Amino acid sequence: MPELPEVETVRRELVTWLPGRRIVSAARVEAPAGPKYHALERAAGQRIEAVDRRGKFLLLPLSRGDELVIHLGMTGVIAQERPANHLRVMVELSGPKPRRLYFRDPRRFGRFLVVPRGDYRILPTLAAMGPEPLGRDFTLEDFATRLERQAPIKSLIMSQRPVAGVGNIYCDEALWRARIHPLTQARKLSRARVAALRQAIVDVLEASLAAQGTTFSDYRTVGGESGDYLSQLDAYGHAGEPCKRCGARLRRIVVGQRSSHYCPKCQRR
DNA sequence: ATAAGCCCCTGTGGGC
DNA sequence: TGCCCACAGGGGCTTA
After folding, report:
1. CB distance under 7 Å to strand B: residues
2. What are the φ and ψ backbone dihedral angles of A56, each rounded to 5 degrees?
């Protein structure tokens, strides 16, 4: 679930208390060893120097040249209280309370691992990630170049390569705002439509960030609160309901194994 | 190199 | 009540 607004909300909470602390221990709990928790034990003894974000990845540079990488997957939640179940990682910290950080992740699609700083060879999506949508590098020129591919625009955006951090909800929302059908071939979009999509992505992410994201079921802030953007969604989850612009009945189709919600009248192929 | 499909997991809700 | 199927904010791997 968590997309850029949700992950950024979590980052803003973590950055208020984690930097400067030393990791006393970091260990898997109720989870098999594997690449999702790669080299986690290396975090022990290192100080957390910052809490950064790239797309949906949280990046915590550590003092001995490593980097703690956290991805929430679909159901990952970071908390200061021990969860009742599905606890995957527990981190002990130096300093004042709270001295523990818990990673709960029922579906185990998330990751919590350590790599040499900036070495993303085992994280191909992160390595090939497009620019941050709320940063200066997300230019029309660059975006248009990255859309010169033969794939449905929905699938291409979801790949994280044209732009970082946009997932299923905000992709549908942005396409609805820009009036682009999810199956439109990316390379066939006019420059004007590419510009409209770029702006729609920026607008919807900023609006959601202001509401601390969207909570369907699992996502929570570190403080345990829900995001409030759910009620402002125009397309995602509204199949069968009238389009707020034209009144036509919104549809749900599957694109790249992911559900896509759109208006058949405003968003023509 | 690129694009499409399958897979990993657990939980929940609807239909019968 | 119970069973089965569909579906869920993601991304990596394999296949052509």
Report:
1. A 32, 85-86, 106-109, 149-152, 155, 217, 256-257
2. -95, 10
CA of A124 to C1' of C13 (A): 11
Catalytically annotated residue among A21, A47, A117, A258: A258
Is the whole-model pTM more than 0.90? yes
Please identify which of the residues A28, A53, A54, A56 carries the catalytic annotation.
Answer: A56
Active site residue A56: yes
Chain length of chain A = 269
Helices (H), A179-234: 191-210
Strand (E) positions, A80-195? 87-93, 100-104, 111-116
CA dihedral A36, A206, A15, A68 (to 10 degrees): 20
Say how many C-beta atoms besides its own lie within 10 A of residue A179's C-beta. 18
The residue whose two tokens read 């682009």 is: A180
A168-178 helix and A191-210 helix, angle to the nearest 10 degrees:
130
Instruction: Encode pLDDT of A146-189 as tens digits.
Output: 999 999 999 999 999 999 999 999 999 999 999 999 999 999 99
State the nucleotide closest to A186 in CA–C1' terms.
B3
Annotated catalytic, A8?
A: no
